What we know:
By secondary structure, the protein is of the alpha+beta class. The chain has one domain. It is 34% helix and 30% strand. It has a 5-stranded mixed sheet with strand order 1-5-4-6-7. A two-stranded antiparallel sheet has the order 2-3. One of its GO terms (cellular component) is phagophore assembly site. Belongs to the ATG101 family.
Amino acid sequence: MDSRRPPEYTLDLTADRSHVRDIVKGLLHTIFFHRYFTPIFPATHELLDLTLPFVSQPDIEALIETRTTTLLRHLDTTSTTRNSPTFLTLTLQFLERKRRRTWFLQKPDEETPWETWHLNITVLPTNNNTALRNSSLSKNSSTDYNSTQTRHLMTYELEKATWQVLEIANQQRNHIPPITTNESNPFPYDLKIKRSGQEGWGGKMGIF
């Protein structure tokens, strides 16, 4: 029996409130693009001057949209998002179904993770630039510079995370389980979002 722990990968992202949905969706689509083991029509989309892969499968699109909508609702009900950054961790696990049998009966299939992705997301406060605008000492150029810095940071971290996914997908494959089912995609996944200091919340989802 192989007792090795399944690999875990950590990606860091920074986003302001207006970009957090698209950035999270973009990175999730990038991961799924390399972990969806069935032929798909290649597609891309543009985000922050980057060209990212897009999984044009209705089930995946709907599930990612649902989870990012839940994430935004959580941010909107958290008052601290308007005063200081909010730190979230989105954990995505790909699972393997293992059939369990005894001498006399068959037990329900066991689902065990074979790969885990942690997306550490820093959501900037909505007043990130407001203080500069309202300050009598600030100038328009200062506000523009602050906005430019934020955009550069978001772009840099998204591009870095995308390259990390690509490098991992190309170089680390030995841990991927054999496919033993005829389902269109044999591996369900578990997706949870946790705010710093809170237990994870979310739900298990499968791709069929």
